[in-house]
């Protein structure tokens, strides 16, 4: 007879609330989630969570929203706690980014954009506004669209850049479909925006597309 999650966690450790906080790297996914959600001593909750992890071992589903709680048959309060944890991680990355030239921290830029856009179910268009030393002034999600497109108004992008005295931009959007393919519309928009902002002595440093857990850089693709 198989043991329930309340008897033994996925890592073989007992989920009895006696986990050492100083060693989280050794925890299984079930142990970590149980600790975050405060359910280490709740057998029924552990079994429910264990069943979900067995059905869907890819942890990307954890970064959903409250609307997903019904679909996954999990309590809404669990989602709130999980999203609070993700938000804290995003803010740590954000603070690291703000302290230096973002061109020297490409992995942090990617992680930040993944955190902000990677879980969105509709296309979002966002901009990192930078100063003359490539330090972040502000991050804004300017436009929201449908599952496969978003309408971008260049005038708004420029207005915001001028309002906060930005010298450079990193523009970005997501592909909820998970497609890594950059469309002709993506490329055309980038070129049009670059031509427009360069007239105002503002640079576009990159256009990054978030798709299925990765971030594609147009600069690295030779498209900008």
From TrEMBL:
<keyword id="KW-0862">Zinc</keyword>
<keyword id="KW-0482">Metalloprotease</keyword>
<keyword id="KW-0378">Hydrolase</keyword>
<dbReference type="InterPro" id="IPR037518">
    <property type="entry name" value="MPN"/>
</dbReference>
<feature type="domain" description="MPN">
    <location>
        <begin position="102"/>
        <end position="224"/>
    </location>
</feature>
<keyword id="KW-0645">Protease</keyword>
<dbReference type="InterPro" id="IPR025657">
    <property type="entry name" value="RadC_JAB"/>
</dbReference>
<dbReference type="GO" id="GO:0008237">
    <property type="term" value="F:metallopeptidase activity"/>
</dbReference>
<dbReference type="GO" id="GO:0046872">
    <property type="term" value="F:metal ion binding"/>
</dbReference>
<dbReference type="Pfam" id="PF04002">
    <property type="entry name" value="RadC"/>
</dbReference>
<dbReference type="InterPro" id="IPR001405">
    <property type="entry name" value="UPF0758"/>
</dbReference>
<protein>
    <recommendedName>
        <fullName>MPN domain-containing protein</fullName>
    </recommendedName>
</protein>
<dbReference type="GO" id="GO:0006508">
    <property type="term" value="P:proteolysis"/>
</dbReference>
<dbReference type="InterPro" id="IPR020891">
    <property type="entry name" value="UPF0758_CS"/>
</dbReference>
<keyword id="KW-0479">Metal-binding</keyword>
